[in-house]
């Protein structure tokens, strides 16, 4: 059975039971129960099952309609006020609502039988109330990425096992499933596929992803606030319960304490709405091993093994993926409420079947590619999806003077070398084929890759180039495409030049930063000169690019939230490199030893109107609170100096005092900045 159908059947069963439990049903609501029965039987018909692949969009819409109907059933069964959006109208009459769901479900079943796709408006069975959750920390960009999903038709067995675990009615089912395996096994693809299915069918859920190149954001401190806010966006009952917890409590909204977050943002709302969520709630946490050092996830692991996790509601599921690092394995392997599944144990035949489907699709565009070549790539992958992806990327783009056949032959000739896996050997071959081995070529390679790896947030190529133009050494002011042009098999953001330049897989980062594996292509992240270059460039960008009223806001009487096109203005007026410099200059400075030239640049910012313009950008980005952290870091950096930086330190402390006194006003309305600064003076 297709997962869409499994999720729909789970929701159908739960909703039907709620209706059956009612002593008296209105005629129309009784009709909805009959329609649900008809739908259940329809979904199990042989003809329905045989045509699922061609009618997935209709199945998705059936699941969405059933999710919407289930929310209505909850309100009806609990005698709660009903307010439902049907088209452009708000309806509160249960008979009208029930008739709407009956009609839609009937139309969708007929649409499936006719093998036709027609536009049927899904009736929203809830209107999200405008409850104030603003101020709760949220990890932007940590959610679902549909480009990472499994190729259709692959990983069917493991996806079926996970779907069965999610939809089971067994109250004793483990609340957590830990999916683990070595790098390159395809854990993230499976996680994003499940998260995508949950979103497609309209079921309540959330997806939170860690990433090695986002560790500077300290996502581990925002994981549960982000998950709670996402669940609130998907379910009105949870939203109300969460709002009741955090309303009028700014300290709780902004807490970094994950233990408090767990108890107040997850457990407490769930306890208050017991029985109001129909179907299973699924939270996907991907790549926990990429959170950072083991200390970064210590508290998260402690919560996942706690008695509270054991007694989560019977319809609550957490899908967790990671490599089997020792600290994670110690917690997950022996917990009775955790189901551990290893991708390393999947039968080789199933893995090779799926890799063959992937390789056939990726190399199918090449002339005269045959079954033999595809099969050779599959065999050489040794069961690693990441190697197969890398191999296809290596073969397809080509390079000057080489045909795809020659690149294929070179790839097949690679063998694991002593001390290197085949994956490492392939990384080495890609770099060897694209990077000049001259002294200048290697010097530029190291400089560019240090920039890519050591920036605290991945940046697109244009932003990396803008930063590089501010490096102190003019010899470094070259276009980084000189180095990155042939690195698209291992780096994103090279072909489209719009998305961020980042390793396509965490294993490439590990390879680069381990000298025993990468040899002459080793990237030393402890290089103090490059740390200084990033600090210098960030300060130069602030000095040269900050300006008064950068987004041209017309009035201080309007709150930031009331400026209708504020997001558009921010995107147009605050380029990536300026946004980055505003958020991370202090962290780069902290990693650099005290330096008079850098101290002079700091003074040029904090000793002039530029500090106001910097705070203005932070206000527009919703990050004024980080201003105090940044200036505290700068103050600590200045205190190691013994050569008269007291005047700069005093200016920094004035800035801290200003944010502490007027931060709440600045957050509300950016144009108040100048007036507040004059008041302080």
Structural overview:
By secondary structure, this protein is mainly alpha-helical. It has 5 domains: about 5-85 and about 90-135, no CATH class; about 155-345, P-loop containing nucleotide triphosphate hydrolases (Rossmann fold, 3-Layer(aba) Sandwich); about 350-415; about 435-520; about 530-680, no CATH class. Helix content is about 55%, strand content about 5%. The chain is built from 32 helices and 9 strands. The strands form 3 sheets. Strands 4-5-6-3-7 form a 5-stranded parallel beta sheet, sandwiched between helices. A hairpin with a 2-residue loop joins strand 1 and strand 2 (about 90). The chain is globular and about 85 Å long. It starts with a helix and ends with a helix. Mean pLDDT is about 85; it is low at about 125-130. It comes from Pisolithus tinctorius Marx 270. This is NACHT domain-containing protein. Keywords: Repeat.
Q: What are the salient characteristics of this protein?
A:
681 residues, mainly alpha, Rossmann fold, 5 domains, 5-stranded parallel beta sheet, 9 strands, 6% strand, P-loop_NTPase, NACHT domain-containing protein
**What radius of gyration results from the CA coordinates?**
28 Å
Structural class: mainly alpha
- CATH fold title of the largest domain: Rossmann fold
Task: Give the termini distance in whole angstroms.
Answer: 70 Å
Spans of at least 5 consecutive residues with low confidence: 124-128
What is the 3D form? globular
Name of the CATH class of the largest domain: Alpha Beta
Beta strands, count: 9
Strand content: 5-15%
Assembly level? single chain
Report the mean per-residue pLDDT as an integer. 85
Query: How many structural domains can be distinguished in the coordinates?
Result: 5
CATH architecture of the largest domain: 3-Layer(aba) Sandwich
Strand order of the largest sheet: 4-5-6-3-7
Our count of helices gives 32
| Helical fraction | 55-70%
